[in-house]
Amino acid sequence: MLNLPSESECAERLKELVLERGLRCGCNDTRGFYWLRKKACFECKNRSCKATLYLKGLTKMRGSKLPFRIWLGAIYLYVIDQSVTATEIQKQLGHDTYSSIWQLLATIRKLDIEISELREKYKTENDNTNVIPDRLMHLWWLDFHQTFFFRQPSEVQDGIWNWLIDF
After folding, report:
1. Residues 152, 3 contacting (CB under 8 angstroms)
2. Residue 144 pLDDT exceeds 60
3. What gap in Å lies between CA 52 and CA 46, rounded to an integer?
4. Structure-model confidence comparison of residues 161 and 136, the more confident one
5. pLDDT digit string (tens) for 92-111?
6. Region 31-45: what's the mean pLDDT?
7. How far apart are CA 136 and CA 31, in angstroms?
8. What global pTM score does this model have?
9. Chain segment 10-20, per-residue pLDDT in tens
């Protein structure tokens, strides 16, 4: 079993990283957002808008019912070994449902492939620049820069969360 942070620790760190990037609302109000603890979401400070933004909705985890810590552990295992199986991930994470882990692994692989297309689009729009934002890096890139083999998921979670944040 992996040494994963608790669900609340994962959510708190993800929330901090989202705030560091800055949130913008569709109403273009400059007052920003505040955190609603009861709903575990951000809400626009504009009284006429009150748009709510949930953490998973701001990431590539959108629509998933799996906990943050399961995503963190699965991506961590995928980065270490891209040929990892859903059975191995299920065993390492101690999750009871194979089908949800299989779907998660398929999603991670799909997202990793889609990054190639986004990178090319970014390079084209930015005059073939060699400076690519971290969020457009392949997952294997995290392995080289974070030395995953010698660290626990809790130590490298910022790299994973930054890759998952969608905006």
Report:
1. yes
2. no
3. 11
4. 161
5. 999 999 999 999 999 999 98
6. 89
7. 29
8. 0.81
9. 999 999 999 88
